[in-house]
Amino acid sequence: MEIGKVVGSVITVSKIEELRPVKLFLVDILDSEFKLKNDFVVCIDTVGVGFGDLVIVTQGSGSRFTEISKPTHTDAAIVARVDDYNNFLGER
Amino acid sequence: MEIGKVVGSVITVSKIEELRPVKLFLVDILDSEFKLKNDFVVCIDTVGVGFGDLVIVTQGSGSRFTEISKPTHTDAAIVARVDDYNNFLGER
Amino acid sequence: MEIGKVVGSVITVSKIEELRPVKLFLVDILDSEFKLKNDFVVCIDTVGVGFGDLVIVTQGSGSRFTEISKPTHTDAAIVARVDDYNNFLGER
Amino acid sequence: MEIGKVVGSVITVSKIEELRPVKLFLVDILDSEFKLKNDFVVCIDTVGVGFGDLVIVTQGSGSRFTEISKPTHTDAAIVARVDDYNNFLGER
Amino acid sequence: MEIGKVVGSVITVSKIEELRPVKLFLVDILDSEFKLKNDFVVCIDTVGVGFGDLVIVTQGSGSRFTEISKPTHTDAAIVARVDDYNNFLGER
Description:
5 copies of one chain form a homopentamer.
Chain A: E1 2-12, E2 24-30, E3 36-45, E4 54-59, E5 76-87
Parallel strand pairs in A: 3-5
Antiparallel strand pairs in A: 1-2, 1-4, 2-3, 4-5
């Protein structure tokens, strides 16, 4: 999984059936210094997040292992909000 | 998933059975500033899109979770057209 | 999927059972300007291609969804020969 | 799989059910000279590791093939602690 | 699949059950000019290889489609030794 920041949302009309009831957010993934990689992923929200939140993103088949994302064809899901983290990179 | 722009199409004759009835589009993926990455993906169209459209692309096994792509061996599908989006990257 | 060019072949003796009867080609993937990325993939040929051909490559589990590749442990397959393509990148 | 170093941990409250009882570590992946890539992965710990440990990380569907990670939607798991390694890169 | 060179091995004590009886090698992947990418993968050996051998590596779920790797949670396996190859990149 990766840590990302919710930086936007996507509105689609002509999408296929399975994605209709879900929210799609733009999540920019963080590098190991917690800076945005400028490389975003369109994620199904399975938690209930807001703009600016730090979140955990699962990609690949694992993204369809939640109640909300199971019937969809997604390849990325927000599966948790990050409340805090410890980073010992300074020790290097 | 990722946002991409439909930039071309591919015509194949000698392709294997499963891909025959589907349209294959070239989609260039966007970075977080909505610029083309110059890195395209050959996608099955499951929505009905046109050149220049912004679309959502699913890669990996999720691309075979639609009615149209299920019987194929694809690893990428256009699953929605993007009608609008909000981007709060300017807040950074 | 991606477009690549067949640039070589691989001969293996001590390979495991499942890969014995198949041909393995080196395919260099193209970027969106149709230049070689210098990043090749070893692919099972499910179509019957030759050196220099432009081909479509499926990676991941989708590469095992063809009659020829199904019993193998491959993660990449040539699934079509590209006969023509339209590219509207010049419009950008 | 890849070798990484445990560089931090993540605390989440509003995470979905499946991830509740597991520990999430930040693991920075190593390049072939055993330097940190500054590209970390959020991993489920299936072994019992500590900060600074060198570990083996499995990504993708394989990360859910352990007793601890099976019921989760993870895409990355720590599956072993590295006790020693031989590196013959100097021979190149 | 990709071509790589066996450049080292990994010794783990505290690994989980499924990986116990298998050998783990460090494989550095080659680019299209057959130079090391300095980006290695920890692979299960399903063939019986030695240091310096050129090998074919399968990643993802395909790596668990061999007799040896099936019960494991690996995401990478050495599936063949490369005995020879033809490379027509010079024609470009």
